[in-house]
Amino acid sequence: REKEGHQSVEQERKGAELCFPQRPNSSCRKPTLHWSKAVLLYSVLFCISLITVALNLLVIISVSHFRQLHTPSNILLLSLAVSDLLVGLLLMPLEILRSTTCWVFGDVICSVYWFLSGNIICASIGNIVLISADRYVAICDPLHYPTRMTVVRVKLNVSLCWFYYVFYISLYLKDILIKPGRYNSCYGECVPVINDIAGIIDLVLTFIVPVSVIIVLYMRVFVAAVSQARAMRSHVTAITFQRSLNQANKSELKAARTLGVLVIVFLACYCPFFCYTLVEEKVVSDSFVFFLIIAVYFNSFLNPLIYAFFYPWFRNAVRLIITLQIFKRHSSDANIL
C-alpha cells in the first residue's frame, strides 16, 4: 500500500509537469521557468509590446490626420508603422505565450500565427526596401522625384508589397495551412518545419536580396550626401569658409550616423534569426530561439524611433495628439512642419 502511494504521488508530480495531464501519452512538458523569472520576463516583454503599439499608433495617427504629412515618403512610413503595430499587438504577445508556456490555442491558431508572422515581418522588410528606394530617388535624382514618386504610385507599390507577401507566405507555409499541427511532436507545441530547399529559397528572397538592395541604395545615398556636402564646401567664400566647413562636416556626420543606424539596427535584429534558420529547419521552443525571434520583433519597437523620432514634425504632431488638439475643428490643416 505504501509503495502504491509513492507511485501515485510520482504520477501526480509527473502529471503536474505536463501541459495537458489528461493526455499523458501525447502532452508536451511545461517549460521549466521559476515564477520570479517568469514575472520579470513577462513584465519586460509585455511593456515593450505596449510601447511598440503606442509608438507606431502615434505615427499612424500623425500621418493619417495631418494633411501636410500626406507625402510619398510619409505614406511609406505609415505602411511600415502598420506592420510594426501588428507586430506589437499580435506577434509579440503570441510569441511570448508560445515560447514560455504551453500552447493552448490549438493547431489552427498556431498555423494562423505563423502565417501572420511571415506576412507582417516580410511586409516590414519590404516597406524598408521601398523607403530606401524613395530616399535614393530623393537624394540622387531630386529633379525627377516629383514625377517618379507620386502619392498614387507609392500607394500602389505599398499595396503590391502587401499582396505579394500574402501570396508568397501562403505558398511557403502551405503544408501547415493545409494540415495544421502536422509537425508538432506533442500536444501543446507550436512549431513549423520547412525543408532545406524551401528554407534556402526563403532566406534568399526574404532576407539576402532585400538586405542587398537596402545596403546598395543606402551606400549610394551616403556617397551622394557626402558629395553634396563637399560641393557646398568648395563654393563658399573666404569669409564664411570655416563656418561652412563645420556645417559640411556636420552634414557628413549626420548622414553617416542616420544611415548607419538604419542599416546596422536592421541587420542586428534580423541576421541572427535568419542565420539560425539556415542551419536549423525546425523552429523549436527553447530560450535561444525565443530571444532570436524577439530580437526580430524588437526591430518594430526601434523603427518608429529611427524613422519618426528623428523628424521634428513627428514631435509636433505627438504634442498635438497628446494634448487632444486633433479633436479641434480644422486641426488636420495645422502647420506642423
TrEMBL record:
Q: Does the keyword Signal apply?
A: no
Q: Which domain of life is it from?
A: Eukaryota
GO terms for cellular component: plasma membrane
The record's listing under SUPFAM superfamilies reads: Family A G protein-coupled receptor-like (SSF81321)
Q: What is the name of this protein?
A: G-protein coupled receptors family 1 profile domain-containing protein
Membrane-spanning intervals of the chain = 39-63, 75-92, 112-133, 154-173, 197-223, 259-279, 291-314
Give the matching Pfam families: 7tm_1
Q: Which residues form the G-protein coupled receptors family 1 profile domain?
A: 55-307
Q: What is its main location?
A: membrane
Q: Which Gene3D superfamilies match?
A: Rhodopsin 7-helix transmembrane proteins
The UniProt entry's sequence similarity note says: Belongs to the G-protein coupled receptor 1 family.
Tell me the name of the encoding gene.
Answer: TAAR1
The record gives the membrane topology as: Multi-pass membrane protein
Subcellular location(s): the record lists: Cell membrane
One GO molecular function term of this record is: trace-amine receptor activity
Identify the CDD domains for this entry: 7tmA_TAARs
Q: Which UniProt keywords apply?
A: Cell membrane, G-protein coupled receptor, Membrane, Receptor, Transducer, Transmembrane, Transmembrane helix
InterPro entries for this protein: GPCR_Rhodpsn, GPCR_Rhodpsn_7TM, TAAR
